[in-house]
Design a protein that fits this description.
Layout lengths: L6 E9 L4 E9 L4 E9 L7 H4 L4 H20 L3 E6 L1 H5 L3 H12 L3 E3 L2 H13 L7 E7 L4 E7 L2 E8 L3 H8 L7 H18 L10 E4 L2 H10 L6 E3 H13 L2 H7 L2 H20 L4 E4 L4 H13 L7 H12 L4 H17 L1 H4 L6 H10 L11 H10 L8 H12 L18 H19 L8 E9 L2 E8 L4 H8 L2 H8 L2 E8 L5 E4 L1
Parallel strand pairs: 1-4, 4-5, 6-9, 9-11, 13-14
Antiparallel strand pairs: 1-2, 2-3, 6-7, 7-8, 10-11, 12-13, 14-15
Helix pairs in contact: 2-4, 5-12, 6-11, 7-11, 8-9, 8-11, 9-11, 10-11, 13-16, 14-16, 14-19, 16-18, 16-19, 17-18, 18-19, 19-21
Length: about 500
């Protein structure tokens, strides 16, 4: 059977500083995506934000109205939706009010994603199906922020987010009207300093021709490029900045749509600053970006048979920042996931929650960096407030709670640590935390004596067959303390059987 015949309807909603966009697509199990519907509404969520720190009430009303309409369209297509907000939403002081209204009035979970998550999704959208060793530099000039990503294959290796965008710069310098030479000088200096403070001068090991994915970049490159080409050199970009600045507003409106014309000078100035600071020869415009990246991410979360190490790499990067015991963390992760995969018929959890367990297992001990005492609580705080590309805010919160329950208090449904979760999410946490506790016990010595694990249900009990490379007495002793919780959560007894090749012996624990 052609794998492409397995499909799911998916939708991406992108709340930017300049506009709100919807794309509905069919996602296939071979990783391909076919767009079926697109919409764009120039709501301007960033309007006035960068002076007051608030999205004005009238703009919030317009935004929620658009989201409500988008939600109806997504429901009509029965699409699985991910709605993300970028710089305007994450910086707005009334962000939580907007998120609550989106949930209450549109039935949408709207995420205020971090700059690095935005860069990761942009990179994923531009580079999906890229050859695995190809090196690429991607840039995106948004309304409120600018993202830069260096990627190997389709996986981002380096991610940066700069707090400067076309709408933000336009509001600060009022560059939607007449622009004097002095004002242009100030615009360029501001952009240059912002880029210098946030990015290295040149990104070693990556090409000098970048792919640009945003509307501002596409418009600037199209205006600057020679006829018949889709790229503009750094010199052409600088010349077009001068040309755009000399135009009056009416002239700009003749060349660009109304919303783009107002912010095109600022967008071109930022692109110029990036090109010069990064030492780029040219920028090539592409028509994919953040929104397509959200769709790719949705497909991969649904069809997880394809190998994807990006989330594990992100979690390991966080762990190293806190000087964690990597060998122990990876051992606990392997044991946790082995039990999750082999006991699917027992726990009956969807594959979509597997990444939460993976991250929680890798990072369960990072709280040691703060204090050994109550380190599980410090771990919860660090994961919840960390930046883990690949996990949305809500997903990171669930992973944090799973890690919090890896020791001490049992993950009971009425524990205060479950506050704020839906009943379904609390059950996910309870079951996954129980598996994590068993896995952690199976490496209590931090010496990784267990080199393989097979789990199956037999006669009303779960049997763990543990292949060991030596003595595992401490591990067996600690697993004994988790058996009563395991029985309460899963309704079956837990039995662990170990064998060592050297001794050929077997030991049973009830």
């Amino acid at each position: 059977m052609n794998p492409k015949t397995t499909e799911i309807p998916i939708a991406a909603i992108d709340v930017g500083a300049n506009a709100v966009r919807l794309e509905i697509a069919r996602g296939f199990s071979d990783g391909s995506i076919e767009s079926v519907h697109q919409e764009r509404d120039p709501v301007r969520p960033g309007e006035g934000l960068y002076q007051t720190g608030m999205v004005p009430a009238a703009v919030v009303d317009r935004l929620v109205g658009v989201l409500r309409r988008y939600a109806i369209i997504c429901k009509r297509h029965q699409a699985r939706v991910r709605a993300v907000g970028t710089s305007a939403l994450r910086e707005a002081k009334n962000r939580e009010e907007i998120i609550r209204r989106a949930k209450r009035e549109a039935g949408l979970v709207l995420e205020a994603i971090s700059g690095k998550e935005e860069a990761r999704l942009m990179c994923l959208g531009v580079l999906s199906s890229r050859p695995p060793r190809a090196r690429t530099l991607c840039i995106d000039v948004g309304g409120g922020s600018t993202e830069v990503a260096g990627a190997i294959g389709e996986q981002p290796a380096k991610l940066w987010s700069v707090a400067i965008g076309s709408v933000r710069l336009t509001q600060i310098f009022r560059s939607d009207g007449e622009i004097s030479p002095k004002r242009l000088r100030l615009l360029r200096e501001f952009a240059r300093e912002a880029v210098q403070e946030s990015l290295p001068a040149g990104i070693r090991g990556f090409p000098r021709v970048a792919l640009g994915s945003s509307g501002s970049i596409r418009a600037t490159v199209a205006f600057a490029a020679a006829e018949g080409t889709a790229h503009a050199t750094a010199e052409q970009i600088s010349r077009v900045v001068e040309k755009l600045a000399r135009m009056d507003p009416d002239e700009r409106h003749k060349h660009f749509d109304a919303q783009r014309a107002d912010v095109i000078v600022a967008g071109a100035v930022i692109l110029e600053a990036l090109a010069h600071h990064l030492g780029l020869h040219a920028v090539t415009a592409v028509d994919r970006g953040l929104r397509h990246g959200v769709l790719v991410d949705l497909v991969r979360r649904r069809f997880r048979d394809a190998p994807d190490s990006s989330l594990l790499d992100a979690a390991r990067s966080v762990g190293r920042r806190f000087f964690y015991d990597e060998a122990h963390a990876l051992q606990v992760m392997r044991l946790s996931l082995a039990m999750f995969d082999q006991l699917a018929g027992l726990h009956r959890l969807p594959m979509a929650v597997r990444p939460y367990l993976e991250v929680a297992a890798v990072l369960h001990d990072i709280g040691h960096a703060v204090s050994y005492q109550k380190h599980h609580r410090h771990t919860e705080y660090l994961i919840r407030n960390g930046d883990i590309p690949g996990l949305a805010d809500r997903e990171r919160d669930i992973a944090a709670r799973i890690a919090r329950f890896h020791r001490r208090s049992a993950p009971d449904l009425h524990h205060p640590g479950m506050d704020g979760l839906t009943s379904g999410e609390a059950r996910f946490v309870r079951k996954l935390a129980t598996l994590l506790r068993v896995a952690d016990a199976l490496d209590r010595s931090h010496a990784q004596p267990i080199n393989n694990l097979r789990a199956h249900v037999s006669g009303g009990r779960v049997v763990l067959h543990l292949g060991t490379s030596g003595l595992a007495d401490l591990e067996l002793w600690d697993v004994a303390h988790e058996t009563s919780l395991f029985r309460r959560v899963f309704g079956v007894r837990l039995v662990a059987a170990t064998s060592t090749v050297r001794a050929g012996s077997r030991r049973l624990l009830h």
